[in-house]
Each structure stands twice: as C-alpha cells, then as structure tokens.
Amino acid sequence: MPEKQQAVWQHHLFLLSFFLLSASIVLYWIVSQLTFPSDHASLPDPVPLATPAVVTYADGTKETVTIPGSFPIHEGTHVAAVSFHLPEQDGDANCLAVANRDVNLTLTAGGQTLLQYTAEKTQPVGKYAPFSYLFIHIPRDCWGTEAVFTIHTPDDSIAPAIGDMFYGRKYILVMSLLHANLPEVIAAAMLLIACLISLIFSIHYSMRSRKILPLLYLSIATGLIAIWALANSPARQIFFPNYSAIRDVAFMVVAFIPAPFLFYLNCLQKGRYVRLLHGTAIVIFLDFLAQSAAYFLRLRGWNQMFLVSALLLTAVVIEYFLTLLVDIRKGRIHEYLLSAIGLIFPALAAVVQAFTYLQQHNIGGLVAIAGLAVLLAFEITASIHNARRTAMERDQALLDVNNLSIQAMQALAKTVDAKSSYTANHSERVAKYACMIAEKAGYDAEARRRLYYIALLHDVGKIGIPDEIINKPGKLTDEEYATIQTHSVIGANILKRIKIPDLFIGARWHHERYDGRGYPDGLKGTEIPEIARIIAVADAYDAMTSNRSYRGIIPQEKVRREIERNKGTQFDPQFADAMLEIIDSDPDYRYHG
Prior knowledge:
Layout (H helix, E strand, L loop, with lengths): L2 H33 L11 E2 L2 E7 L4 E6 L1 E2 L8 E7 L9 E6 L3 E6 L2 E6 L1 H4 L9 E6 L8 E7 L8 E2 L2 E4 L1 H40 L4 H19 L3 H4 L3 H14 L1 H11 L5 H23 L9 H24 L7 H22 L7 H52 L8 H15 L4 H12 L10 H4 L7 H8 L1 H10 L8 H5 L20 H15 L11 H10 L7 H12 L9
Antiparallel strand pairs: 1-12, 2-3, 2-5, 4-11, 5-10, 6-9, 6-12, 7-8, 7-10
Helix pairs in contact: 3-4, 3-11, 4-6, 4-7, 4-11, 6-9, 7-8, 7-9, 8-9, 10-11, 12-13, 12-18, 12-20, 19-20
C-alpha cells in the first residue's frame, strides 16, 4: 500500500476509534441513567399543597376558591387577597414553593411578611414577569396558621392566580425542580455543544475552501434553539441569578430564529429562491426590531408577542415546502436529498410543539431538540459527503494539473535533448539513475518523485546555448566552454519562475564538485545541495556511458574505475558508492536501455 494512502487509512482508523469510544461513553451514560437505581430514591418527594381559600377583591367582593388556581377578573381591579390555612409542619419542612406567572405576590402568615415579590425590581425592562418558582422560607411558628397571598396584577387582562404549591425542605424542592427538567437541560446542553463543534468545522472548511457550507447556518439556527430550550426551562432559575431576563431571551430567540433557517435553506437551494427568502428575512428583521422596541418601551412583553414569531416561523416552513415541491418537479432535489429528509423531523417536531402549546401542555423543548438533533446529524453527514466529494474533485483537478505539468516538463526535457543526436533521452536516464541512487540512500517514494522531476530538467539551460557549440564534433575552445558553462545559470533562472519548490536546484548546481572546483558557484562538500550531489553522479555516469561526437561509449569497467577514482573529489563519496553498487548489479548496461 502506498505510504500516503497508508497514512490516510491510519488517520481514518484513529478517527473511527475516537468516535466509537466517545459513542460508548455516551451510550453508557444513557443506559446508566435509564436502568440504574436512582440515587435520589432515599429523598422524600415534595408535598403538593391544595387547599380551600377565600379570595377578597379590592372592591370588597369575596369568593370561595381552591388554590392552586386562577380567579375571575373583576374589571378595574388589580389587587386580590387570597386567605388560606398553612398545613402543620411536616417533619423538617421549612419552605413553600409557589409557581408564579405574571403577577406580583406578597405572603403574610402569623403576623409576619414572608414574601414580597415585585417583578419591576428584577425586570427593569419589559412589561410582565415570566413564569418562575418562588421559594418562601416558612418559620416554625407560622406553620398551621392563617396565611394571605396578596396578588397584584399588572392590568385588567391578567387574571389573579396562584400556581402549583409544594412544601418540604428547600433542598428537596430545588432538587425536585431540577430533576423534573434535567432531561431537557442536558439535551439542550449536548445539542449546543454539537452545534459549536459543527460551527467550528463549518468555519474552518469555509476558510479553507472559500465555500460556505449550509451546515454553518444550520449550526447557528440549531444553537439558538438549544439556547431557547435552556432559557425556557423552569430549571433556569437554578443556574441564573436573573431568570426573568433569561426567559425573555428565550422569546427573543424565537423571534430571531427564522432568519438563520432562511439562510440555511437559501444555501441548500443554491440561491434559486433568493428573492423570496430574502424578502421574508427582511420582514423577520423588521419584526424583531419592532418587538424589541415594544419590549424596551414596556409596551408589550416578549411572551405576548410570541404568536407573531410563531407565525413567521410557520411562514418559513411553508416557503421551504413550496420551494421543495418546485425542486422535486424540476429534478433538483438530488442536490440536497439528505438535508431534505432530515428537515422532515424538525418540521414534525414543530407541529407537535405548537399543538401541545395550544393545548397548554408543557413538554419543554425536548421534541424540538430531538427533531433538530436528527436534522443536524443528517446535515453533518451530507456536509462530510460533500466535503469528501469536493476533496476528490480537487484532487482530481490537481492530478490533471500535475499530469499536465509532468507532460510539459517531459516535453521540455525532450526538446533540450533533441538539440543533439548524442543526448537523446539523456535527461530521462539521468532522472532514473538519480532516483536509483536516492533509493540506495534511503529516500522515500515522495522524495524520489520530487527528485525525478528536478533531475529531468537539470540541463534545461542548454536551450539557450547555440546548437553549433552543443553539436561541435571536436574539442571546444575556452570561449565555447565558458558559454556551455552558462547553461547552469540559464536553467536555474528559467526554473525559478515556476512555483515548484527546489525545481531549480539540479539545474544550477549539478556541475559543482565535491572538492569545490566546480561551477557556477564553486560550492564545496555539503555546501552543495544533496539533490545536486546525487544528480552530479547520475549525470556523469550517463555522459560516460553514452555516445558523444568526440568519442564512443566508455566500457562499464572503465566507468566504474573513473567514478571510484573521483570519489571524494568530483563526487560525494556516499552517492558515488551508491552508483558503484548499481554498476555492479548491471554489468550488461541493462539500466542504460
């Protein structure tokens, strides 16, 4: 197996091992959480509190109700007092947890004010306090006494309400809240991590290939969904000091999230419907700005404008399916078939999420996360497939260019050799001998390949030498010999213009001598580049074993003695010895053919 291919397979094997080990860790985590006994089994469950109560409105009207629950709206009334009886203390219970939505609350019991929650203090912008749990410390002497919740509603559109109530130890209540929302939090966190990895991969790929992957926009969109799930979960108040603002972030994300989805679709469909999608994107940006202005001016809360955001997201889904149908009809769906299949899952998840929201069932973001995780997996697969295909096309293009370059170099070498009938195929033979010497010296296949093309063009400078000098049958004059010597510099200047590293080395220094008496620069010993020292031996061997205008082929044994005699003076001893080994293995000049 070639060394480069072997390295690629080793790299793939390493990646496969890494992903298998990572998958096994994740699998163990999932199995352990689903099948192992719970470490919370010894903890008591929070005790739900449901009790009769009397609600007294600001106009003096009284009504018997059951809490938790919501109560009728009295026009013009923003305050209601709900009287109820706290239960007797159960064990070491010290806390009452109350689910609060959109109201300000005060709790008094046993003559003490135990809670005074005002949304405006924690939410200086926006209009309404979001849903949260209020954890109220209940002193020992207050259990079993009469308690009063005073409810302040922001305006007439909000009904007075007391949400679900639980009592017990505060630690138990907090752990219960976290445990109830932990699957959603973990799923959202893992999705966010996957999005960050996908985003880094997409940016890296885009910078290298100068081509934007659809995965880039999908990573942004999916990451926003993960942020929405984390910010929308009731468990947010355990992790963040101001959970009111965090919930607002969830609604902000919903208002903005259609935009990166549009760019994702536009990238998938290669800009075919850019006017339609960009028109929708402009509407989304304008809506986001309008909602932001209404929020910061305290005209509306983000949660009150959620329906508009949901409608825009629905419009994006409809546009996608319409353009998808057009692409199916025109036979273009094959361009993004994997992505199109993957998009079915978040679309179904969105329908389920919307239905449960309308039915007032809180399922959190698990369904949406699951749908997007499947889409992300499909898109990552599609991106890897496309990246591999692009790499193969690029490699093929490079191979075509390399083949063209090789053919051009070979043609140039033949043109130079054709200047004299005595030098036919000289350059190719020198390149072959140089590679044989390099193999003896331990060069790998890639290094020998580079050496071959450098040696192939070692005499290219002769293209600038007059034919009458090259083909002169007799001995050259000093002036003619000086002209011949210029071919080293001419060749180097020609090859330096080609952007292939070290291509000029053989041309410039193949006539340098190990003892420093060569030309054009008089380099000595290891000052001479190693490649040039190899070519010098190969060039001298071929010159001695080929016909010349002034002599015939020198016998092999005499050639051997000449190389042996000039070892350490004209030639590098290491490479001269390698050439001698080759000569000894070829007494009949088989390699010369």
